Amino acid sequence: MTPRTYNVLFICTGNSARSLMAEALMNHLGRPRFRAFSAGSHPAGAPHPLTLELLARHRYDTSGLRSKRWDEFAGPQAPVMDFVLTVCDKAAGEVCPVWPGQPIAAHWGVEDPAAAQGDEDQRRQAFQEAMLVLSRRVALFLALPLDKLDRLALQDELRRIGRARAAGADA
Fold first, then answer.
1. Is 100 within 8 Å of 120 (Cβ atoms)?
2. Domain ranges of the chain
3. Which of 52, 88, 106, 134 is catalytic?
């Protein structure tokens, strides 16, 4: 029997930093069991240059990353999502489209590195910190025994993961 592939959609407002990082992380670490996508309610139009720089420095594939509207994933031609995870507080409070297939949803709020102030090093550090938090959460998600958890338990676990900090922090 072929193992199931789970589709995961990461949502943020601008789809230029956090959601793209999460998409790249999940696609790199979770293949072939997971296939990740990202989108925004009000996409910025392009990935933030520091997002692409950071992902490339860590050797994550950035070739398919683009800033896109979440409506792309709500239509009849879109892949059916198993999980929809918001990674910014603003998007979590917005009215989302109705997702086909009733995916499990959770909020994984991460501070917006694109809004970071300061010099170039401080801004790069903000992107690095966001990626560390997302790396930890993706790793925790990938460790879940999906086939052994019912829908409610899985929802609870994803919410718990959303409170996890960077590597080494307690979940």
1. no
2. 6-161
3. 88
| Chain segment 144-159, per-residue pLDDT in tens | 999 899 999 999 999 9
- Active site (annotated) includes residue 12: yes
Q: How far apart are CA 131 and CA 24, in angstroms?
A: 10
Q: Is 96 noted as a catalytic residue in this protein?
A: yes
- Catalytic residue, from 12, 20, 78, 87: name it: 12
- Domain 6-161 matching CATH 3.10.290.10: the answer reads no
**Residue 117 appears among annotated catalytic residues:** no
pLDDT band at residue 171 using 50, 70 and 90 as cut-offs: very low
For residue 11, is pLDDT > 90?
A: yes
Q: DSSP characters for 22-85?
A: HHHHHHHHHTTTEEEEEEESS--SS--HHHHHHHHHTT---TT----BGGGGTSTTSPPPSEEE
The label of the residue with tokens 């199931």 reads: 4
Q: Residues 6 or more apart from 104 whose CB is under 8 A from it?
A: 82, 83, 84, 151, 154, 155, 158
Per-residue model confidence as pLDDT tens digits over 87-146: 987 655 666 677 778 899 999 999 999 999 999 999 999 999 999 999 999 999 999 999
